[in-house]
Every structure is written in C-alpha cells, then in structure tokens.
Amino acid sequence: MDVSKYFSSIKELKFLAKKEVGQNFLIAPDIAEKIVSLLELNESDNVLEIGCGAGSLSYFLSFGPAKATLIDIDESLLCKLQTDFKENDYLNVQYGNAMKFDYSPYNKIVGNLPYYITSSIIEKTLIGAKNASKMVFMIQKEAADRIMAPTNTKDYSPLNVYLSLATKSKRVFNVSRHCFVPEPHVDSSVILIEFNKKHDENSFKAFKLSQSLFLKRRKTIYNNLKNLLHDELKAKEILERASIDLNKRPEEITPEQYLILTKLIKC
C-alpha cells in the first residue's frame, strides 16, 4: 500500500481511538517519516516501537533495514497491523504493556507515548534499556517542557537529573495538534534521547538519591539528607564537602551535585 492510501486509512480510524488510553493517531506521513529517520537505522539494530497504534511510525519501520518489534495493549489495532504487515520481513507485531516490558534486548526505541504515563515510560526505558543507544519519543509539548526543565524550576525532578547525567537529550521539533485524529487539545514535541556510551551505575544511584530527597522538596537539602542518613553530623559534613549550601532545596541542586553527593555518601 502506498503512503497516501495507508495514511488515509488511518484517518478513517478516528472514531475507534480510545480516549481512556490516550490514543491519537498521527496522520502526517512526513512527520512520521522524520521521526523514524532520527533513529538512523542500520541492519544490525534491534528496534522497539512502543504504542504502535494505527501504524503511523510502523509504516516507515516496515521498509527496514532493521528488524523492529511493535507493541501495544490495544488488541484490535494489533490485529490491524498484523494484517497490514503480514508479509513484511522486518516487523514483529505483538501484545506488550510498556510498563511491564523487557527493554534490555533493544538498542533503539521509538514511540508516540500516551500522555498519562509519559514520564513513567521514559523512566522505565532509561532504567531498563541497558543496551540502548538512542530513543525517539513524541510526547505532549507540556510534558517535553517538564522533562527538559532546568535546575531551580518548579518542573525540575529526579527524571531531569537522570536524563542529564545518563544521556544527551533535546527537543528536535514540535508537531501541531492538527496532525492527529482525533485532534488533541495540545501540540506535541519530538524528543531525542541519546545515551552516553557507558550506562554509568553512579548516574542511576544519583537518580535514586534525588528521588529520596525530592520526597519533601520544600524542605532544605540538609533536613532531607539528615533524615535519610539518620545522622545530622554526617549530612552536614557531606554537604560541606560537596560545597552545597545547607539551606538549598532539592530543586536547587544540579545533576552534577547529586552525583557528587552519591559518591560522598558511598564513601
């Protein structure tokens, strides 16, 4: 099926989209092709598409050169894609829950992520995709704003800490809400996440530490750290060695400082 016919067929699925799982189907083939091209695929890649839906990205993955596994929880759409690509040698369509899936076999991951679990899926992939070099996700623009938030802002979070330490991440381009059916209320953004060559265990530990210290983000870093360590003197000593003001709050601590704290606590 040529591209215009395929994407016309996706438009016809407008009334089958399930609002409760955040389904909005991309109907702009140029955008879908651009997203897949960001993966820079070669024959040796093992690709995963999260939330394949009606097949907008899958269509361009179907041309290879890499093998790709497509997962979704919507069985009716999975049946559609199994029919669409039944004679395709590159694609494997299967049921898969993104929150429970094993990401370790895949080195490149792509997806149009459901808005209501965007951060959770990105966190799962960051932790679970031990062999990944690159991920490309389309997410709501507001979610991209949060994920890319700098230190000392209300949206800064442990996920920002992990992304900063373990990857090079950026927003590549925005996508108008008019490129989807049914049309969502907000625009989307495409983000590119490229892992550092080595998945450093210390980055993960800094992420876990920041999670603990962000539980009470309005308290000072000193109060949170002393409660975590159950030791006032040790908390003060560690913060002083890290050159961190005891009165700062968790959102004022940079990713690099969380990494330093992790190493000092380990000592």
Commentary on this structure:
The protein is α/β, with parallel strands linked by helices and 267 residues long. The chain has two domains: 3-199, Vaccinia Virus protein VP39 (Rossmann fold), CATH 3.40.50; 202-266, Helicase, Ruva Protein, domain 3. It is 39% helix and 18% strand. It is built from eleven helices and nine strands. The strands form two sheets. Strands 4-3-2-5-6-9-7 form a seven-stranded mixed β-sheet. α3 links the parallel β2 and β3 (67-72). The longest helix is centred in the last third of the chain and has 13 residues, at 201-213. The protein starts with a helix and ends with a helix.
Q: Radius of gyration, rounded? A: 21 Å
The amount of helix comes to: 25-40%
Number of helices: 11
CATH class of the largest domain: Alpha Beta
By DSSP, the count of extended strands is 9
Quaternary status of these chains?
single chain
The largest sheet, given as strand count, sense and whether it forms a barrel, is: 7 strands, mixed
